[in-house]
Amino acid sequence: MHVFVTGASGWIGRAVVDDLLASGHTVTGLARSDDSAAALEAKGARVRRGDLDDLDGIRAGAAAADATIHLANKHDWANMAASNAAERDAVTAIGDALAGTDRSLLLASGLAGLKGGHLATEDDASPFHGPDAPRGGTENLALGFVERGVRPVALRFSPTTHGTGDHGFVAALCEIARRRGVSGYPGEGANRWPAVHVVDAARMVVLGLEKAPAGARLHAVAEEGVPTRVIAEAIGRAFDLPVAAVPTDRVEEHFGWIGGFFSSDMAASSTATQRLLGWTPTGPTLIDDIDGGAYGTDQ
To answer: Are 51 and 87 in contact (CB under 8 A)?
Structure first.
């Protein structure tokens, strides 16, 4: 199968491209820089130059492939409105290109906001609709493409898709801890984050491409919920820092943009995903990775 991948040079995208190629698929990756293009070519993937603002290029890339995996996002935390708008425009462009083809569109989504305080499952619909919602409401937008002759699948990634080289949320928490001289956790630290190793997440994506029916919601979750206090304690061990609670009224001041995420309770199950795809996560746990140096200063 020829697969067009946006975000192909990103953290999850690189692992997905590797798994796609190892599984015998042909890959065209969207690349905005010379370095990203060279890295994709070195793997044996084809390259389409462009970025999320190149809607004509995104439409063309999707139209020329048998399936599209949309992983790119601007992640501009200082201007989320712009990130959400770009995400919605890109998904709309892909939907337009695939309308009436019965081809697959797998798109990155998340677990935030699904069912705080309870174990979220694949049966829980995203509460986000419309262009002003997180990610531009693209999960619900894309799942609606079924009526247009597209086969959409939502990929709900854990906030902690971890591993050596990760520069996402856990890396940000490590940097905040080093800068402040203390590894903090919000309130009592009982709120939970699901976690998955990046290689396991990539395997789930490729199995989803090959097996998931139109309209499926897949959860890239290996650990249903790691308490934030446990995460903070591991970061403290990794950098020989004290560990302390951060009062809820000081979370935003202490953690900055990531404070709201780190305060959220996002426990989630992947039981249905594992059963549907025959997927069993086998990678290291989040704490194994932190204790093993995956987030060390040289990473």
So the answer is: no
DSSP secondary structure letter of residue 134 = G
DSSP lists the bridge partners of residue 2 as 26
Local structure of 155: helix, strand or coil: strand
* Model-wide pTM > 0.85: yes
* 276: in domain: no
- In this prediction, residue 74 carries a pLDDT of 76
Domain that holds residue 56: 2-157+198-221
Q: What is the pLDDT of residue 181?
A: 98
Identify the three-state secondary structure at position 285: coil
CATH of the domain at 264: 3.90.25
Q: Is 78 found in the same domain as 128?
A: yes
Q: Where are the alpha helices (DSSP H) in the chain?
A: 11-22, 34-43, 55-63, 80-98, 138-143, 169-180, 198-211, 228-239, 251-255, 259-262, 271-277, 286-291
Residue 152 lies in a domain: yes
98 and 183 inside one domain: no
Gyration radius (Cα) of the chain, Å? 19
Strands 2-6 and 67-70: parallel
Question: Which residues, in sequence order, are bridge partners of residue 156?
Answer: 109, 219
207 and 104 within one domain? yes
Q: Are 168 and 121 in contact (CB under 8 A)?
A: no
Place of tokens 């940000």: 172
- The CA distances from residue 156 to 4, 66, 179, 186, 238, in Å, are 19, 22, 31, 24, 28
For the chain, what is the domain count? 2
Looking up residue 114, the CATH number of its domain turns out to be 3.40.50.720
229 and 212, same structural domain?
no
Helix (H, G, I), strand (E, B) or coil at 247: coil
Neighbours of 66 (CB within 10 A): 14
Residue 232 has pLDDT above 90, yes or no: yes
Instruction: Answer yes or no: is pLDDT of 115 > 80.
Output: no
